[in-house]
Amino acid sequence: MTLNLLLLIYWSIRRKYWALLPLGVILFNFSYIGGVVQLRFSKPDLLPGHKSFKIATYNVKEFGREDQAAASWQIAEFMNREQVDVICFQEYQDYEHFNMDSMKMSFRNWPYNAILADTLDLLRLAVFSKFPVEKGELIKYKDSGNCMMWCDVVVNNTRLRVFNVHLQTTGLSWKRREIEQEFQSELSTMEKKKKVFKETFDLLVDGIHKRIVQADNLHRLVEESPYPVLVCGDLNSPPSVYTYFKINEGLKDGFRTAGYGYAYTFRFYKHMLRLDYIFHSESLQGIDYYSPELDVCSDHNPVIMQLGVPQQ
């Protein structure tokens, strides 16, 4: 995109019709650009009759597994400094050496919680809150270790339905290692490359199909909600595909309403991927939205949003 912008400037200065080509590319991708770049120079004032609070979403990648205690305490301290009121975790996992009670102790400043996945076959989800958490539900995906959940959080007398979402994981890195190990001695280098390409392609297509079904299901549940909605989580999708647009339908992308600068949430691949999001109902006011670099245990960064909630 930067290259197209430079080409547009160059050919425009030279008054060449070639400028139409990069201009067309930029216009075609304008929606994507708005999903990763926002220009905003000040935060809006809280609307009269509204109360503000902060919510965060964070794929913690099982708190790094090896040193869960240290990672969970560091994250809790970070969320305290940022004055976050509600935290949505994906890939929240406990093990024998650091169980669920230990995790809850780390996040004791958030006394209310909803942790609904009760099996290691699923990549667990958890919501920790300083506000009361009412009923919730776990939604499992077909043929997947991913899942989503919702719970109702009462923020200053206003009930919000919070969806904590982890859409289908690509699994590219582990699949590539699995194939290479399996056929290391049996196939030639060219045959192995062809096998890796085919298996990778099939995995990508399967993941896309699953995310489409999962996004459709989430959209239906959002439409059925009797309360204002927040959708938080790891979509494993950039802001340019069906999954993003379907979930954004009827909701606001928090980055578009309150973010600024360049947005990415995946810490690798040259900071090119925005995969984690917070969407909100139109009745909620977006005040601030950011994704700080946090090198603790995960390949993702957290996303934090400040919102204004109308008081009842």
TrEMBL record:
Q: Where are the transmembrane segments?
A: 20-41
Protein's GO biological process:
GPI anchor biosynthetic process
Boundaries of every Endonuclease/exonuclease/phosphatase domain copy: 56-300
Output one GO MF annotation: catalytic activity
Query: Record's Gene Ontology CC terms?
Result: membrane
The organism's place on the tree of life at top rank = Bacteria
Q: Tell me one Pfam family matched here.
A: Exo_endo_phos
Q: Which UniProt keywords apply?
A: Membrane, Transmembrane, Transmembrane helix
Q: Does the keyword Methyltransferase apply?
A: no
The protein in question is named Endonuclease/exonuclease/phosphatase domain-containing protein
**High-level lineage:** Bacteria, Pseudomonadati, Bacteroidota, Bacteroidia, Bacteroidales
